[in-house]
Amino acid sequence: MALEYHQRGPSSPYTFDVVLTACPFCDHDFKPHESRPEHIGEHTPSDAGLTPLGEGGDASGPLFESDPAVATDGGEARER
Q1: What is the DSSP string of 33-58?
Q2: What is the pLDDT of residues 11-61, one digit of tens each?
C-alpha cells in the first residue's frame, strides 16, 4: 500500500499524518487534496476480493476447521 508519513510540525514532534498516496484496489495515484474516501467508495466489494454485498458463502458450517487442541469453551485446550 502506498503511504506517506508527514510530521505535523515542530510543536508536535511525535505526531504524524499518514496519507494514502495510491488506491489499494486500482493503483490510482491520488492528487494531494483528492478525497480518498470518495474514490474508494466508488469501488465494489469484488475489487477488494470480497463477495458482493448481500451474497455470501455457505454459512451452515463452522467458520474455521475444528482443532481439538484449541479450547472452544473458554477453558484450557485439551485432547479429545
Answers
A1: T--HHHHHHTS-GGGGTPPPTT----
A2: 766 677 788 999 999 989 999 899 999 999 999 988 988 887 777 766 666
Q: Are 23 and 3 in contact (CB under 8 A)?
A: no
**Rounded distance between C-alpha atoms, residue 25 and residue 43, angstroms:** 8
Look at residue 5 in the predicted model and tell me its pLDDT: 67
CA distances from 7 to 14, 38, 55 (A): 7, 25, 42
Rounded-to-integer distance, Cα 32 and Cα 73, Å: 50
CA distance 72 to 63: 13
- The owner of cell 480518498 is 36
Q: Which residue has the higher pLDDT, 6 or 69?
A: 6
